[in-house]
Amino acid sequence: MDPDILRDYVSEARELLEQAQSDALALECAPDSDAVLASLFRAFHTLKGGAGFLDADALVEWTHHLEDLLDKLRSHVLPVTPTTIDVILKGLDVIQCMLDELGRGVYPNPGPSDLGQRICALASVEDVHTSPPESASENVRPIAEQPTGVESAESGTLQAWQKLKPDGKVGMYVERVSEGKDKGAVCVESASKAGDDAAFDTISDEEFEQVLDALYGHKAPGVVPPAERRVMDSQVASTTVLPGALPQATAPAPVTSVAAVKTERPSSTSETPESTLRVESARLDSVMNQVGELVLLRNRFLSAMQTTIGEHEDLARIAREMDLTVNDMQSTVMRLRMQPCKRLFQQLPRVVRDVSRQLGKRVNLQIVGEDVEIDKKVVDALSAPLIHLVRNSLDHGIETPADRVMLGKNEIATLRISAVHLGDKVRIEVSDDGNGIDAQQVKQKAVEKGLIGQEEAARLTESDAIDLIFRPGFSTNDVVTEYSGRGVGMDVVKKTTQSLRGRLYVYTNLGTGTTIAMEFPLTLAVLPVLYLRLRRDVYAIPISSVSSLIDVDPQRLYQVQGRALYQAGHEQIVPFVDLGEILHQRPIELGTEPTDGILTERGLLVVSEVLGNEDSVVKPIDFLSESHWYQGATLSGKGEVVLILDIANLKHSQAEPKRGVA
Questions:
Q1: Quick count: other Cβ atoms within 10 Å of Cβ 623?
Q2: Are the C-beta atoms of residues 225 and 13 closer than 8 Å to each other?
Q3: Fewer beta carbons within 10 Å, N or C terminal of the chain?
Q4: pLDDT (tens digit, 9 = 90+) per residue, 411-453?
Q5: How far is CA 453 from CA 19, 465, 471, in A?
Q6: Where is the Histidine kinase domain (predicted)?
């Protein structure tokens, strides 16, 4: 197998498979939708065509069986039922495994025989009330003694057929391309030499599929993958099947990509389709890293020129233009990395369907914000944690229909997945209207499992108790099931969120439901930061976590049950976080030492001085023993290494023993 062709096919086929799964689930909700049936049928037909070019016979056979089943459904010979949807979804799982094998460079093994027999049994159902449809090959006759306009370098390479259309026009069709020849695309030209204007006759998707099946049988080539398109110089002159009367000189028509799930009819206007280019993500990452380095160089240049730039008007203008250009470049490259949350959410309907049926629960899934864009790294990393959150809601949060009725709730629970932009962040929420989280039960289970002691449990607030669900090894289930009880999962959710510079929030009301929210920066490549000074050391914090800058008034500082609180406004009481106490083991002396206050989402952060803001490129610092205090490190405009503080972890660390940081 050609590795380039294989890579392109597998990549596009996976996208097509995701769409097919969405169509199958949509079909269960709208079984009479001919549009969904047609889309799903085309997906299998296209998958089969690409597999045929790769000689992946097992995949060709499997998709052909599913295609036969879909043909029965779209002709309404077979009704759409949960059983048929189950079979289709399991068939898609088999295709996924086959694509994984192709991705490893090996031909896939045949699918499971028992499932294959079920698919064939369903596909073999006949409608006794309907006469058999006219074969696509009927009324198709060889072109006898008529010049086809095709000059073949080798006899028998092409065989053309014509079919009389209802409007009286004659369509030309290619029967086959011989083995060993380039299979990119072919052309048949009309024998008409009357000099008439070119006339194009559009055929429907169904007609095209029927002709392919009639001519190729089980190994119809379907749609040509873009990587395999070639111009057949020695055999033909252009690249499509052109029905109708045409002059001999005809232009090639585009061949549909395997990833094109929905086929658009050619419009009457000559619109040029938007061109796309598939690029490896590693190349985008490399470009983003280089842009990040350029941002750092820009910062250093502006810092170095600060003392002299005011004296030279031309130099100041060049510096401003360079700043704007770098910002535009940075913004453009960051947009290249953005992907819609639909890529993250589209797997969830299948998860909800399977798990809710296993647990005997009825759930209405609502998905909001599929068009919200977020960094590709977040999309890739958040897939498994998001699935766990959904399973957790279904298993722990949502009650059985009988219990919900007893509680006066609708027996159909609501599970809502949403994404929304919040300034320079994206917030993703998983909400259910289940029984909520019992903080007392969580503390009791944590004590039983030895995660905390009785005394510590007694001191925990409700919020701190709920945070225990993210401890490794914690689970409220005593019995291990397929979905819970092992004490793994929620800790992975928290670690993944933190690794993506995100924040995790839990909102719960006992008896009414739970919402778990995750907030992430729009992009992970470049981070705007605020520089600050603690005595002689310089640090940075993400600007996204800063609410405002305030003057610190010692008269507004209070001690309540051993906790330092600050009155930031008339009705705003926030935690007081002394950075000197945490990092230097020596509190900042208010009224004696210079102080500035930074109001953050976690409280008032007290520092020696606020220095200014700058775009930064974050580098990992896992080698530090106190790395949980920091998000990473960056280079300032002066070329100094600066640690970026993690405000949330600093707040939790305030009461713990500290060791100084030089």
A1: 6
A2: no
A3: C
A4: 999 999 999 988 778 999 999 999 999 999 999 888 888 888 8
A5: 50, 12, 14
A6: 265-524
